[in-house]
Amino acid sequence: MKDAATRSADGGAHGRGRDRGWFTPTQPPDGAGAPAPDGHSRPQEGSPPPGQGAAEAARPAARPGKWVAVRSVKPPAPAGPSPAPAPPPAAPPSPPPEQQRPPGHQWPPEQQPLAEHQPLAEHQRPAEHQRPAEHQRPAEPPPDQRFRPAPAPAPAAGAAESPDTHAVRSTLAELEPVADKATSYFYALLFIRNPDLRALFPVAMDTQRDRLFKALLTAARHADDAATLTAYLSRLGRGHRKYGTRPEHYPAVGECLLAALARYAPATWNEATEAAWVRTYTAISQIMIDAAAEDEEQSPAWWQAEIVRHELRTPDIAVVTVRPDQPYPFLAGQYTTLETPWWPRVWRHYSFSAAPRPDGLLSFHVKAVPAGWVSGALVHRARPGDVLRLGPPAGSMIVDHSTDNGLLCLGGGTGIAPIKALVEDVAEHGRCRPVEVFYGARHTGDLYDIDTMLQLQRAHNWLSVRPVVSDGPTRGLSGELPAIVRQYGPWPAYDAYLSGPPGMIRSGVDALVGIGIPSHRIRHDEIGGLMAASPG
Ligand SMILES: NC(=O)C1=CN([C@@H]2O[C@H](COP(=O)(O)OP(=O)(O)OC[C@H]3O[C@@H](n4cnc5c(N)ncnc54)[C@H](O)[C@@H]3O)[C@@H](O)[C@H]2O)C=CC1
Prior knowledge:
Layout: H1 54-57, H2 163-175, H3 179-193, H4 211-221, H5 226-239, H6 249-264, H7 271-296, E1 303-312, E2 317-324, E3 335-339, E4 347-351, E5 362-367, H8 373-380, E6 387-390, E7 406-412, H9 416-429, E8 435-441, H10 450-459, E9 463-469, E10 477-478, H11 481-487, E11 494-499, H12 502-514, E12 522-524
Parallel strand pairs: 7-8, 7-11, 8-9, 9-10, 11-12
Antiparallel strand pairs: 1-2, 1-6, 2-5, 3-4, 3-6
Bound molecules: 1,4-dihydronicotinamide adenine dinucleotide.
C-alpha cells in the first residue's frame, strides 16, 4: 500500500510531517506521479502541490492519535479528461445476488447503503467502451438500476442544511445519472492504484460490487444526522475487520472516491466542493477506524465455526447448527455474517434462530434461492465437519426486557428464525408476557418450522402461534400476513417485531402503523438500513 495513513500524534507514523498528518499525499516526494490508470507512472492530474489544495486549506486540525485520510483531487480538465482506467484482470463469473435478509423499510431496495461492505468487485469495466467525454453528459439516462443514490433526506424541521452537506448533496445529484460509470471508475482506480487491496475482495464480484462506493455516498448524504451516521458507520467499521481492512486503506479509498466524483460530477466540482468532500470523508473514515480499533480490543475479527448438525427441512431449506471456536456473545433477534469455504470473502447475513444456549451452539435457517451460491452451498453442499467463518453479531431487533408489553411477531418464510429466538428469549426471562406469532408462508409445505413453533406454544401458555398461508390451500388462516394481522387486535400494549421478505416488512409496517401501533414500537430487520426502527 503506497498511501499509508499517518498518526498525527507522532508526526506521522510513516515519516510524513506533522503538518500533513490529516492529509495523505499520494505523490512521492520526488514529484513522480502515482501510477496512472493505464498503469504507467505520471504526474497526478490536477493534484495541487502540497499545501495548496483547497481541501488541505480547509482541513480540520489533526486529531491526536487518530488515523487520517485523503488527499486532494482536482477534476480533469474539461477539454481532455484522462482515459478511463483499463479494467482489472478478468475474474471468474460473479456469484449472483443473494439476500437472506431484508432491508429496513425506510429504504427502498435501490437506495440501500451497505450494511457490510462486500468488498468490491472484479469487473470494473470502468470506462470500457466509453468515450473520453461521455461522463460529462449528465443528461444521459441512468445506465443501470443497481446504483441509484437515495434522495437527500429533508432536513429536520428547524435544522438548516450545513454548507458541507449542501455541497455533498449537489455532487450526488449531478452524479446520479452517471452513477454506475462513476462506480466502475472508482473500483478500477482503486485496484489499479492499490493492487494489494484486490485481495480483500471476493474473487468474483456480484451485483453488490458497488456496495462500498454506495455506502460512502450514502453516509456522506446523511452527514448532518450525526447520531444515525455514527451508529451506522461504527457498525460498518467493526464489520470491516473481517475483511482485513486496515486504517491505511482508508486514504486510498478516499482518493479514488474523490477522483471518481471529480470526474463524474464536473459541473459541481470545485475547490469548495472538494474541501467539503474531504472533510466529510475524513469524518466518515475516522468513525469507522475508531470503531474498528475499539472493537479490536474486545473481540476477534471473525470466529471459526464447525458445522455440527445439518437438517434438511424441505428440499430447499436447511437448519444449520455450528459450534464456534470461542465464545460468541449475541442477543436473541440479532444476525451475523457468514462465509463458507466455497465462496471465500463472500459474506451473507443470517439471523440466529435460537436464543443464546448454554452449550454455545448457534443455529441458522438457510433457504437455497435460485441464484444464491452461498445459500445453495449451505443447503446442498455443507455437511457436519465443514468450517464456516462468522462475523460479529449485529442488529437491534431485540426484546426490550424493561417493559411488560406483549410481543406481536410477524415471521415470513425463513424470517421466522429470529422470531423463534425472541420467543425463547422471553421464555428464558420467565415473565409471562403475551406473545402472538403470525407465521406466514406461501404454501402449507413451506411452514418448515411449524412443529417447533407449536411445540413452544404447548410449553408456554402466554404464546400463541398462528400459521398463515398466502398462495395455496389451507385449513387455517389464508392471506398475506399484514392483512391477517389487521383482522386481529387491537394491539394497544404490544411491541411489534417483523422479519421476512422486504415486501412483507414494508407492507407489514404500513399495516401496523395503520392500525395504531406507533412506529417507535415497531422493530424489524435493519440490514442495509441507516434508519432502521430504533429500539422502543
Ligand atoms: N434466513 C434468515 O435468517 C432470515 C431471512 N430473512 C428474509 O426472509 C425472507 C424469506 O424468504 P422466503 O422464505 O422465500 O419467504 P416467501 O417469499 O416464501 O414469503 C414468506 C411470507 O411472506 C409473505 N410475503 C412475501 N412477500 C410479501 C409482500 N410483498 N407483502 C406481504 N407479504 C409478503 C408471503 O405471503 C409469505 O407469507 C428472505 O427475504 C430473507 O432474506 C429475514 C430474517 C432472517
